[in-house]
């Protein structure tokens, strides 16, 4: 079998090229998993996920519209098409209506910056196979030759980076209906034509062209990582790519990899561990609890409200995770006002309480059942106790912190130190002022000089 030229080049680099980290990573999980996670990722804590594609045109039910219509044969999807589109209408016929005519990347970037997010992850390609850049392996199934006739990945990336935010790209390894992939699948994944002609060329192109700080891989659950050549790609990414020193990757690189291999762990969607994990992790969550893509049929009751989002974020950060919150833009390129309202509300809370989130570490105790739930984060000798509802009382006990004569307690947003007294064994009782109104229903006590 002829060895692809890209693999020959990779092998040469693995044998001869020095790494700025001083370590050469070999294409196996033992080596790749030993790579230290670039520090920026743990410090930023909060990011925005953006699901956008041809599925935003029907904007019904889910971003899995095509699959539910044609494979799962869900009645509501079939009926939607019968009622609204003529016989013979195909999914690809939606693409010309993916106009994105109101897409202003600077407006999006302003909203994301106002949310307090420090990184943004855009879908470069979902499972439908439509690429949001002019991929040379996508024929005309891309945003430059079809639909918007724009390089959406590049345009948003430029706007994001002008605001000094980190830019990441989601990429689906597999494609539901690509005939080359289906042929490989039919062979039991003994052939790799789709990998060599489509999946890997796309990933190399994305990295070389857009230099993302993060790659969010997905669509990995049908075939093993050996089919995808994932370890070969990651070895190149960590050793010789233009982003080798800063790039962060997740754990979805083949069947059985998630929660085991990769830079940080996503595990399952909306992963919610019950205790402090021993590996850096991320929870991806969507404002719309039903779908990741935009739905015209969404109801207000199906959306996370601001207090729910903040409680979720605080929980994740206290347990050492990052919080990646998703919004789905419309086909014409707008972020729905209800999503923007949530994002700006998060940003308003973070302006006051952000020091309890950014660059923090999990404390020795992550939570306490006080009068109201309390979550802890820490920086050196400073501990933050985040109250996720109003205790409705002036005196408030924290049983876990070990105080000293030098301990100072303040309420973030209130410049005056608070009066407090130690409890007999451990902890303290603090005299709270009238808590300011917070749409997020969360407040932070800052405890300096505690053990």
UniProtKB/TrEMBL annotation:
One Gene Ontology cellular component annotation held by this UniProt entry: lysosome
Biological process according to GO: fucose metabolic process; glycoside catabolic process; lipid metabolic process
InterPro entries, sorted: FUC_metazoa-typ, Fucosidase_C, GH, Glyco_hydro_29, Glyco_hydro_29_CS, Glyco_hydro_29_N, Glyco_hydro_b
UniProt family annotation: Belongs to the glycosyl hydrolase 29 family.
Main location: other
Leader sequence residues: 1-22
Pfam families with a match to the protein in the record: Alpha_L_fucos, Fucosidase_C
SUPFAM superfamilies xref list: (Trans)glycosidases
Location relative to the cell: Lysosome
EC number: 3.2.1.51
Protein name stated in the entry: Alpha-L-fucosidase
Reactions it catalyzes: an alpha-L-fucoside + H2O = L-fucose + an alcohol; a neolactoside IV(2)-alpha-Fuc-nLc4Cer(d18:0) + H2O = a neolactoside nLc4Cer(d18:0) + L-fucose; a neolactoside IV(2)-alpha-Fuc-nLc4Cer(d18:1(4E)) + H2O = a neolactoside nLc4Cer(d18:1(4E)) + L-fucose
GO MF entries: alpha-L-fucosidase activity
Enzyme class: hydrolase
Subunit and partners: Homotetramer.
Domain of life: Eukaryota
Free-text function comment from the UniProt entry: Alpha-L-fucosidase is responsible for hydrolyzing the alpha-1,6-linked fucose joined to the reducing-end N-acetylglucosamine of the carbohydrate moieties of glycoproteins.
């Amino acid at each position: 079998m002829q060895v692809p030229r890209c693999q020959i080049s990779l092998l040469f680099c693995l044998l001869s090229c020095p790494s700025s980290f001083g370590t050469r990573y070999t294409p196996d999980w033992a080596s790749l998993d030993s790579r230290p996670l670039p520090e920026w990722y743990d410090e930023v804590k909060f990011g925005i996920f953006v699901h956008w594609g041809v599925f935003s045109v029907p904007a019904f039910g889910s971003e899995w519209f095509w699959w539910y219509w044609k494979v799962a044969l869900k009645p509501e999807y079939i009926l939607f098409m019968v009622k609204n589109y003529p016989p013979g209408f195909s999914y690809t016929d939606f693409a010309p209506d993916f106009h994105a005519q109101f897409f202003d990347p600077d407006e999006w970037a302003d909203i994301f910056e106002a949310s307090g997010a420090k990184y943004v992850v855009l879908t470069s390609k979902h499972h439908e196979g439509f690429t949001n850049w002019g991929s040379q392996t996508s024929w005309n199934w891309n945003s430059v030759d079809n639909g918007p006739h724009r390089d959406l990945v590049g345009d948003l990336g430029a706007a994001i980076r002008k605001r000094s935010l980190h830019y990441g790209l989601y990429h689906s390894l597999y494609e539901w209906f690509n005939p080359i992939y289906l042929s490989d699948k039919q062979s039991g994944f003994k052939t790799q034509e789709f990998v060599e002609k489509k999946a890997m060329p796309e990933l190399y192109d994305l990295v070389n062209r857009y230099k993302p700080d993060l790659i969010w891989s997905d669509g990995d659950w049908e075939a093993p990582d050996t089919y995808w050549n994932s370890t070969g790609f990651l070895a190149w990414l960590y050793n010789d790519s233009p982003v080798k020193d800063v790039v962060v990757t997740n754990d979805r690189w083949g069947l059985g990899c998630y929660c085991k291999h990769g830079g940080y762990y996503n595990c399952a969607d909306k992963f919610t561990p019950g205790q402090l994990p021993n590996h850096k992790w991320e929870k991806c969550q969507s404002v719309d609890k039903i779908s990741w893509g935009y739905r015209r049929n969404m109801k207000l009751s199906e959306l996370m409200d601001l207090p729910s989002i903040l409680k979720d974020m605080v929980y994740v950060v206290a347990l050492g995770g990052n919080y990646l919150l998703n919004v789905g833009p419309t086909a014409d390129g707008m972020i729905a006002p209800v999503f923007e309202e949530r994002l700006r509300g998060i940003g308003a809370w973070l302006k006051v309480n952000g020091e309890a989130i950014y660059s923090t570490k999990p404390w020795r105790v992550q939570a306490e059942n006080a009068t109201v739930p309390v979550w802890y984060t820490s920086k050196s000798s400073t501990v933050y106790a985040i109250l996720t509802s109003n205790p409705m009382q002036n005196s408030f006990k924290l049983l876990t912190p070990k105080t000293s004569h030098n301990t100072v307690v303040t309420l973030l947003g209130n410049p005056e130190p608070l009066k407090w007294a130690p409890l007999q064994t451990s902890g303290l009782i603090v005299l709270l002022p009238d808590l300011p109104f917070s749409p997020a229903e969360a407040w932070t006590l800052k405890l300096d000089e505690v053990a």
